Design the sequence.
């Protein structure tokens, strides 16, 4: 790493395209030994959930409010759908207050600076109050008809503020994602190179909002230099880091962009001791395809690294009212590979967010919606469920952070994410999935 520090100290390079330094991107226009880019894990912990653990992170609500307070010129948001108020969900829940505050603040900003929203084309019966309010306040909104374009949906959830700060994670633009659903995301402040790269993905959605077809190939301005083979090298929290953004489906990846599935498979491949995965849904199928199709790319990779490389694999999957029973058949199959005598170590646990009678009345809430993976080297924070559809036709994206080479005293994002996983895995909200588990007992409450 000494070569890297030398370059930091001697010259300022901003997102340089020069062949010599293209792999090195100093984010800030200042010239400190280390730049000031700051990365922060953020979480929504549903009302009433309590962990016996000191592992806590700022809330996603705080992160979004901070980002709006920082905003001076632009806010770009990629989103699946918008239901930030009680009005949208026909509820009268005090815990909708955070979502409502976000919507009001964003409406206020829409009059003063450039607010652009790319959203999946709403279905007939989906509420449109939020988008109408934002439009009336001056925001620019484009609907992306992913159904027509790829037979999928725009499922991505990220923010780019002032081409400087970014947020990416599992939370939808939904009040429940702030107080009633368990979510995980990440914010990177003061990082123009990463923000510029995420902007390219946003610009692709923005373009598709007015296009009847997907360009092939994508014009040059959408392409990137940063991917799994040539990541962006920069200091995050004073720690040398390799980072890149992946995107799905492959048809939305311009030249240079690593498709999300390739990113997941390569992170698993690169692991040397463990792969911990926390996702809401895990299915080796195309969930939404007709006729039904088997899709085992990720499943096969997990079994392979467990068998060939003796990697310890842990899957923390969500279980709630709407979980398809077939998911458990496939998870039991994966868990059946467990055999300590042969060094085969795959374990599955189900995470249940409990609900009081009153909380049960909130539709589509009380679930662990996390979508991340952490290995002994890498933190991967995404927006996709883990079934075939999300990698074949649905738009999603992920931030991959590699701080392997770090000698830093500050804790790395990888170690923070591992602590989140271990907190959840070891909590009373998780139950091991065994061949005998009767899911009715704890999932379908
Ligand atoms: C602009 O910002 C100010 C102060 O934050 C706010 O009061 C106002 O509603 C915003 N919108 C417009 C259109 O001025
Ligand atoms: C958005 O606002 C403009 C006026 O600024 C109006 O003409 C248009 O109909 C609005 N669109 C929607 C979808 O409400
Ligand atoms: C960005 O960096 C500047 C300069 O170091 C600092 O003043 C500011 O607080 C940082 N912004 C955020 C959101 O961390
Ligand atoms: C689960 O679904 C049933 C029937 O749709 C509903 O009555 C119940 O409140 C739901 N429970 C939760 C926790 O969402
Ligand atoms: C993930 O999958 C569930 C179940 O199919 C679906 O309800 C949800 O919309 C998907 N993901 C989101 C919203 O992130
Ligand atoms: C992580 O970074 C290290 C050190 O730079 C590198 O050797 C390794 O290949 C990287 N891993 C991945 C998955 O990018
Ligand atoms: C916290 O600890 C108490 C006492 O050991 C236990 O009953 C409870 O289930 C724990 N809660 C979680 C979320 O792990």
Sequence:
């Amino acid at each position: 790493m000494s070569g890297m520090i030398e370059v930091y100290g001697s010259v300022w390079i901003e997102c340089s395209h020069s062949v010599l330094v293209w792999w090195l991107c100093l984010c800030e226009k200042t010239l400190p030994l280390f730049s000031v880019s700051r990365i922060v894990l953020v979480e929504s912990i549903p009302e009433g959930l309590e962990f016996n653990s000191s592992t806590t992170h700022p809330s996603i609500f705080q992160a979004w409010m901070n980002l709006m307070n920082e905003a001076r010129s632009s806010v770009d948001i990629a989103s699946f759908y918008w239901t930030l108020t009680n009005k949208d969900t026909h509820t009268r829940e005090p815990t909708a207050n955070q979502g409502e505050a976000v919507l009001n603040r964003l409406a206020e900003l829409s009059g003063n600076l450039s607010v652009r929203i790319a959203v999946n084309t709403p279905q007939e019966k989906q509420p449109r109050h939020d988008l109408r309010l934002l439009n009336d306040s001056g925001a620019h909104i484009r609907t992306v008809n992913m159904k027509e374009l790829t037979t999928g949906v725009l499922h991505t959830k990220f923010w780019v503020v002032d081409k400087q700060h970014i947020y990416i994670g599992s939370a939808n633009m939904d009040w429940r994602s702030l107080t009633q659903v368990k979510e995980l995301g990440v914010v990177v402040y003061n990082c123009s190179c990463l923000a510029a790269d995420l902007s390219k993905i946003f610009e692709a959605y923005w373009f598709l909002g007015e296009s009847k077809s997907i360009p092939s190939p994508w014009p040059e301005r959408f392409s990137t230099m940063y991917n799994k083979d040539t990541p962006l090298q920069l200091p995050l929290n004073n720690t040398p880091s390799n980072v890149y953004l992946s995107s799905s489906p492959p048809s939305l990846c311009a030249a240079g962009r690593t498709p999300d599935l390739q990113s997941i498979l390569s992170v698993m491949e690169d692991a040397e001791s463990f792969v911990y995965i926390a996702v809401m849904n895990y299915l080796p199928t195309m969930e939404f395809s007709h006729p039904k199709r088997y899709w085992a790319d990720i499943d096969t990779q997990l079994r392979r690294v467990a068998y060939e490389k003796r990697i310890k694999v842990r899957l923390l999957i969500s279980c709630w009212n709407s979980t398809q029973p077939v998911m458990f058949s496939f998870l039991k199959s994966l868990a059946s590979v467990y055999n300590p005598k042969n060094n085969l170590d795959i374990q599955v646990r189900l995470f249940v967010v409990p609900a009081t009678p009153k909380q049960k009345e909130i539709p589509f809430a009380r679930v662990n919606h996390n979508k991340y993976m952490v290995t002994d080297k890498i933190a991967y924070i995404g927006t996709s469920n883990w079934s075939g559809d999300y990698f074949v036709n649905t738009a999603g994206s992920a931030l991959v952070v590699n701080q392997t080479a770090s000698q830093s005293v500050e804790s790395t994002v990888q170690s923070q994410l591992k602590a989140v996983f271990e907190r959840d895995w070891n909590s009373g909200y998780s139950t091991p999935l065994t061949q005998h588990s009767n899911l009715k007992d704890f999932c379908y409450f």
The mean pLDDT is 91.
